[in-house]
Backbone:
């Protein structure tokens, strides 16, 4: 990932969603790396400081919220934005996400265009 | 006297040969069908791999010149089944323009008429899949044809129909969904949580149907209505909720009504909710504590504070934790409780420790 392109880490165990998010963000000019679960996301974050992390909440093993908690305890990842992309759409789920430290929350099924708008807005980027 | 059985060697040999050939035939059959299946799967993977970029282009809304869409709609007829399965899987994950484009792929392969025929199939799995496919295609005009399946004898079909209607999102299906809710402890009918999901997703008109359902003779239906009022939420239902709270006898429904009032009520409801926080049924009491927190006004502190001294551990702890969420005044009140001997010491100490732990995890003060 070069410093010219904002970098994004995507963690989702659903290959359709993962491929779709990667495709959409790459088309928009982001440098994207994708992983299949929470543990892989934490491993990737050991040697990567992305501008944004897109996390699925329900993943096998470590959930997205677990990963988010870990991210928020790491000084090195202090300014990293986190967007939760999840099927859990109840008010309490959304509250949990924000209370854990998420910067934004998108529910599935989702509009890839809306996702891109949110990502651009979080990274302060016009399209 | 011993009996001697004589089998002719020719017969024995013949039987053995038959057995050997039968074994070889069965082995060949198993291997053949397995190889065939593996080959088919390989071909399907190959085909889907070839079409994957087109699928992603359509699903991401990047197919401005519609060339990817044309690629998906023009696959050979014998391949449409495989493609449609993958398109359906993707369709359940996206909404907006990409969903409309993916539905166009299914329509071009004749899935719409296939699904409409399937609604009256004798096989439950076919009926369920047909309803789900129509739901995925989000065709409003199909809603009326799916509705009768809410009364199907198979619960799988009922659930698939409700979820299909949820995807279509037409509020006109609200009344049939309410009618399909299963009575408690009955295996047939629509499970409450699926009904809640549907009624929370439908567009208007839903409010009138939900408010009407708060007086339904079946407690399971009243419970669904109360949950929807709080979750959707429906602020216009507040007067009805206040009225129903006074009359409701089913504890689960009462708890849901109380919780709903927390989401749609205001300062005038604090006294009523504080009274319900002392309710002998703990589920109702806990719901009232949550509601007081949800209202989230400064005056909620005064309503919650006396509940920390409740002799029941769960309501008192929940009230104490709720106070930590109500700003500095709530936490100050807890510190007072923690140093004044009495029943409030333990829940107050617990809540303050919990807040300290959470703050440490979040890296806050």
Residues:
């Amino acid at each position: 990932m070069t410093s010219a392109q904002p970098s994004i880490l995507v963690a989702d165990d659903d290959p359709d969603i993962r491929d779709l998010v990667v495709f959409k963000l790459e088309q928009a000019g982001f440098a994207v790396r994708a992983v299949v679960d929470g543990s892989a996301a934490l491993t990737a974050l050991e040697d990567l400081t992305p501008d944004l992390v897109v996390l699925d909440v329900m993943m096998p093993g470590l959930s997205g919220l677990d990963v988010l908690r870990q991210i928020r305890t790491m000084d090195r990842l202090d300014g990293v934005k986190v967007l939760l992309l999840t099927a859990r759409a109840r008010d309490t789920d959304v509250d949990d996400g924000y209370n854990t430290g998420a910067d934004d929350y998108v529910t599935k099924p989702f509009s890839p265009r809306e996702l891109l708008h949110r990502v651009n807005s979080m990274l302060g980027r016009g399209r | 006297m011993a009996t001697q059985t004589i089998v002719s060697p020719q017969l024995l040999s013949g039987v053995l040969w038959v057995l050997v050939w039968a074994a070889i035939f069965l082995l060949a059959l198993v291997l053949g069908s397995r190889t065939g299946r593996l080959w088919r799967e390989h071909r399907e993977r190959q085909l889907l791999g070839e079409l994957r970029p087109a699928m992603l282009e359509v699903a991401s809304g990047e197919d401005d010149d519609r060339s990817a869409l044309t690629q998906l709609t023009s696959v050979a007829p014998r391949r449409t089944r495989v493609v449609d399965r993958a398109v359906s899987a993707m369709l359940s994950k996206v909404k907006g323009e990409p969903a409309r484009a993916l539905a166009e792929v299914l329509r071009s392969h004749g899935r719409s008429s296939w699904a409409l025929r399937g609604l009256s199939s004798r096989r439950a799995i076919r009926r369920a899949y047909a309803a789900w496919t129509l739901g995925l295609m989000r065709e409003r005009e199909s809603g009326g044809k799916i509705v009768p399946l809410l009364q199907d004898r198979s619960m799988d079909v009922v659930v698939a129909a409700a979820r299909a209607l949820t995807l279509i999102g037409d509020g006109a299906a609200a009344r049939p969904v309410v009618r399909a809710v299963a009575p408690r402890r009955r295996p047939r009918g629509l499970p409450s949580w699926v009904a809640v999901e549907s009624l929370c997703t439908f567009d208007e008109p839903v409010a009138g149907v939900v408010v009407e359902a708060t007086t339904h003779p079946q407690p399971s239906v009243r419970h669904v209505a109360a949950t929807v009022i709080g979750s959707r939420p429906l602020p216009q239902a507040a007067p009805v909720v206040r009225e129903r709270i006074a009359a409701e006898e089913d504890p689960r429904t009462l708890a849901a009504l109380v919780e709903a009032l927390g989401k749609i009520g205001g300062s005038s409801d604090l006294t009523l909710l504080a009274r319900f926080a002392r309710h002998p049924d703990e589920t109702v009491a806990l719901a009232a504590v949550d509601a007081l927190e949800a209202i989230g006004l400064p005056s909620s502190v005064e309503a919650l504070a006396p509940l920390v001294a409740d002799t029941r551990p769960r309501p008192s702890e929940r009230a104490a934790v709720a106070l930590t969420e109500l700003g500095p005044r709530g936490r100050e009140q807890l510190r007072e409780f923690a140093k004044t001997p009495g029943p409030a010491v333990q829940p107050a100490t617990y809540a303050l420790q919990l807040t300290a732990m959470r703050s440490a995890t979040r890296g806050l003060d």
